[in-house]
Amino acid sequence: MAIIEQFSKQEIPYGILQKFGLTQEMIDDLPENVMNRFLSSRATPVLPIVIENAEGQQVKSLARVSLVRLDDGTVDVCFAPQWVDEDLSAFTQEQQDKLKLGGVTTAQVEGKGYCFVQFDDTINQVMTVPVEIIKQNISILKRSFGLTDDDEDVLSYGGVVETKVNNIVISAGIDLNDNTGIRIANGGIIAWQEDTKTDRLPKYNFGLYGCWLADDDNILSYVAEDDFGPELIAEQERAQSANAAQAQLNHLKM
Fold first, then answer.
1. Is the pLDDT score of 131 beyond 70?
2. pLDDT at 48 over 50
3. What is the model's pTM?
4. What is the pLDDT of residue 1?
5. Do 126 and 59 sit in the same domain of this protein?
6. Is residue 113 domain-shared with residue 213, that is, in the same domain?
7. Tell me: the pLDDT tens digits for 142-160?
8. Main-chain dihedrals φ then ψ at residue 159, nearest 5 degrees
């Protein structure tokens, strides 16, 4: 499979992110699992974006953010913005139903040919990748992990397969959110299905400079510490007390 690009915190292009309303304090305050995801080429949960249009007005939006290394070795930022309206009219009703449930289907896409298609309902975007690209990655996966022809067929139709590698059960399936188009998880098929839920965040995520708030759709918004209201102050004190109690418990176990 393709090597996942890894970045260091020192490589984060804070200047570019600042232009889109994401300050260094906001980025450094990202929850640990989100930061790890960000530094390994994966997209963040949906973050608030602020840009200035040609008239000098500030426009607020939402987008997933990821890092990319350019051919010259420099690091840049990619945005997957939220669209206001979903447009699935190009697909059959059966395909639309499958996409809205988070499934993967195949379809003819104008200008791209026959593609694997997946719908991201958080940002209302249809993701498409030509079938040939994914099938090439499936063939590499098959050779690397000793998958059967039947496994290959299951993957090609958007299913999930499981196998053993060095006596460890792993599972794989098409997920266009992954930079290879194929997501691999430790454990069986159920573990693969549950894997994306591991990035779900608690409502309050306190950092050094403020707090990221996660709503029911895992969309994040940021509140600087100077702007904390009574609710956030109370939650911060509760979190600090819990952390202190846990630290004391850990010390007693040593």
1. yes
2. yes
3. 0.67
4. 40
5. no
6. no
7. 888 889 999 999 999 889 9
8. -90, 180
Query: What letter represents residue 117's amino acid?
Result: V
| Pair (207, 171) in one structural domain | no
Q: Is the same domain home to 14 and 44?
A: yes
Pair 192, 224 in one domain: no
Cα-Cα-Cα-Cα torsion 181, 187, 188, 189, nearest 10 degrees, comes to -40
- 155 and 221 fall within a common domain: no
> CA distances (Å), 18 to each of 60, 207, 211, in order?
14, 18, 18
**Could you count the other beta carbons within 10 Å of the beta carbon of residue 110?**
6
**Which pLDDT band holds residue 9 (cuts at 50, 70, 90)?**
very high
In the chain, the N- to C-terminal Cα span, in Å, equals 42
Within-domain flag for 250:
no
Cα–Cα distances (Å) from 228 to 32, 216, 218, in that order, read 21, 21, 20
**pLDDT of res. 31:** 94
Q: Check whether residue 118 and residue 190 sit in a common domain.
A: yes
Q: How far is Cα 172 from Cα 217, in angstroms, rounded to an integer?
A: 25
Residue 143 lies inside a defined structural domain of this protein: yes
Please write down the HEC assignment for all residues of 21-76: CCCHHHHHCCCHHHHHHHCCCCCCCCEEEEEECCCCCEEEEEEEEEEEECCCCCEE
Give a yes or no: residue 251 inside a domain.
no
- Per residue in 77-114, pLDDT tens? 988 777 666 678 888 898 888 888 888 888 888 877 88
Q: Is 211 helix (H, G, I), strand (E, B) or coil?
A: strand
For the chain, give the mean pLDDT.
Answer: 85
